[in-house]
Amino acid sequence: MGKLGIGEETLLYILQGQDDFSLRQTLEGIKKSIGDHDLLPANTTVLDGQQLPLAQLRSICETVPFLAEKRLVIVEGLLARFEPKGKFSPRKKTAQVTNPENEGKSLAACISKLPESTIVVLVDGKVTSNNPLLTELSGKAEVKRFPLLRDTRLQQWIQKQVREEGGSISPQAVNLLAKLVGSNLWIMANEIKKLALFTLGRRIEEGDVRTLVSYAQETNVFAMVDAILEFKPGIAEKSLQQLLREGAAPAYLLFMLSRQVHRIVRAKELKSQGEPEVEIQNRLGLSSEFALRKTLEQSARYPLSRVIEVYHKLLETDLAIKTGKYDGELALNILIAELGQ
Prior knowledge:
Helicase, Ruva Protein, domain 3, 5-stranded parallel β-sheet, 5 strands, about 10% strand, single chain, 3 domains, Zinc Finger, Delta Prime, domain 3
């Protein structure tokens, strides 16, 4: 970790990683540590680093604060512009960086000369360790990395968040919650709030998670699957936007959609083989009676050809996101539009 400027105060922060929830919490902490909170909004500038001319960045950073000691400049996506070719696929057109190594050095030199009245925070998603700008700035900045939480670290975070909500949770409930929601902490925090209210001070148990979390999520996903399979793009789009507003990540929604369509195909196969419902439930790994009933209903209602068509489109969409052809939200919107034709 490095310090920029004279004295002990950090003037340059680099916040980067895929755990956007923890990253944004840290950013809010930085804001709270800066001077007069009433004057901070007037002295805060948020910039799109993917489009920002570097000369403009210097000009903004050198602007004198208004009636305050400090100004805050937040730059989103600047490091991504310096990613080695082939490692980063931006969501939108990015200003060209012709020589990342040299331009990284120039920008680092520029930032090193900024006035002590300006605090700069660079905010990015996942970037590689050999990013030229990150390499140049690491020794001059306080670097905080936010990888997605998984396994034990995710379970510890769940327990901590439950305590902050004034509740307690059993180990079995922690494991199930981690399995159902995964690493998206925006969704996880929202689900924990609902569970804390639902249990009214008693310990959160596995049954509470099954009742509240899985039911709510699967109900919304079932509705979207129905709309897609029935050629109703308007309803599917409305369901998608509602889920996104509630904090669901596009990758998570794509996984849920793919999983449910795959379940429908498997349910059709097992039903045709004469398997009893209990065996189908076990084979599909369905934890609730509600999920079993809905899956069997969908498998009976829709022809196999339509279900397979949708499943293949979901796989294509997943590939388009992973290769950087489209960002997640755009890819899902294109998927719904194509399947509604």
